[in-house]
Amino acid sequence: MAFDSLSSRLQMAMRRITGKGKLNETDIDEMMREVRLSLLEADVNLKVIRQFTNNVKEKALGQKILSGLNPGQQVVKIVFDELKRVMGDETVGISYKASGLTTIMTVGLQGTGKTTAIGKLGAFIRKTEKKKVMFIAADIYRPAAIDQLMTLGKQLDIFVYQEGLIKAQTIVKNGLKYAKDNLYDVVIIDTAGRLNIDAEMMQELIDVKEIAKPDEILLTVDAMTGQVAATVAQSFHEQLNTTGAIITKLDGDTRGGAALSIREISQIPIKFASNGEKMDAFEVFHPERMASRILG
Ligand code: GDP
User: Fold this and answer.
1) How far apart are CA 293 and CA 288, in angstroms?
2) pLDDT tens digits for the chain (296 residues)?
3) Measured in whole angstroms, how far is the alpha carbon of residue 158 from the centre of its chain?
4) Which of 29, 77, 176, 292 is the most buried (most CB within 10 A)?
5) What is the enclosing helix (H) or strand (E) of 119?
């Protein structure tokens, strides 16, 4: 299960503190040490950990918590709020156009689960918003990527616009015209992913962005890569001004370092979580629910 190891460690620290009737500063220091170690083990970015522990400590010591009623529970609430805060506090959805075609461009490194996420997002939007969705296959460097999207499209009964391996910008331009002419509500564009961020890939994405003028640029980040996901997100955001992240493979992530670092480091809100290989293993990312899941 997602966050299992982080969860059990943090819960242990919380149980210890709620088990005490009275708390003093040493108890808080001990708990903070445990929290810090849990976050380190979860592969959370150091800057995030520092801010997290400073905030918790300041609040726990600063508001007459220790002399108040149920100090332990109040401290747990402070930790909970801080977990929620680092994951973005509020749920952020897709900004749909009030009328006409909403364009969503997806970006991400190869293997992060971008194609899978496109399928899931398309099915999700169709189901929850009752919108007519279409895909554009513009990952032109791997023929397999187009095939994979075509297969998904067939499986989900979602139309895939493709022209083979010609210039991505041309495919996107023609695909968007097709979508408008055929009165689609939402188009999701697949773009080239590489194993590493490189200047050529970024330039192509910038060019596609220019043509598509997307309402959303969603970045897929692999939860299994821990805090690296956050620095990758930061690079993408600097170049493309991304509007949201889809955190993928959350089902395999017991640590949580990616989910807890992405927002703070890259400023990108996590909008969705992909948590399995099945097409319906996809959900809106709720910071509050995630924090509850972690603290149990
Ligand atoms: P892309 O190269 O970014 O388009 O990545 P793919 O969508 O092809 O996914 C790469 C691999 O990760 C495939 O084997 C997927 O089945 C798998 N995958 C994608 N999303 C998830 C997920 O949320 N959970 C799990 N467990 N596997 C996933």
Assistant:
1) 9
2) 678 999 999 999 999 999 888 889 999 999 999 999 999 999 999 999 999 999 999 999 987 888 888 899 999 999 999 999 999 999 999 999 999 999 999 999 999 999 999 999 999 999 999 999 999 999 998 889 999 999 999 999 999 999 988 999 999 999 999 999 999 999 999 999 988 889 999 999 999 999 999 999 999 999 999 999 999 999 999 999 999 999 999 999 999 999 999 999 999 999 999 999 899 999 999 999 999 999 98
3) 24
4) 176
5) helix 114-129
ipTM of the complex as predicted: 0.99
Q: Find the residues whose C-beta lies inside 6 A of ligand 1.
A: 108, 110-116, 193, 248-249, 251-252, 274-277
d(CA 245, CA 186): 18
CA 259 to chain centroid: 7
**Distance (Å, rounded) from C-alpha 107 to C-alpha 92?**
18
Q: Which parts are annotated binding residues for GTP?
A: 108-115, 190-194, 248-251
**What separation in Å is there between the alpha carbon of 111 and the centre of ligand 1?**
6
Helix (H, G, I), strand (E, B) or coil at 107: strand
* Nearest residue to 101 via CA among 202, 14, 212: 212
Cα–Cα distance for residue pair 107/68, rounded to 1 Å: 49
Nearest to 254 by CA among 43, 17, 16, 64: 43
For a substitution probing ligand 1, which of 115, 116, 147 has the most ligand atoms within 8 Å of its CB?
116
Strand partners, 220: 108, 246
Distance CA(13)–CA(130), nearest Å, equals 45
